[in-house]
Design goal:
about 65% helix, about 70 residues
Length: about 70
Amino acid sequence: MKTTEQLDAMYEEMLNLEICSFDEIELVTGINGYNEQTLNEIVYYKTGYNELEQYLECTGMDGDLTL
């Protein structure tokens, strides 16, 4: 289970990488809750990767993101 700080880092990285928009994240987390599963479901729907870590690894983006 991720901390709020880790969830916030995921949220920001998803926006920075333009995986999704602010409005998309707000809508989905408003319905399903602000948690790791919900954020990873957005990543899956938008990219086909199961989680943000997998997306970063497979696309060669190693950023300083501590998830």
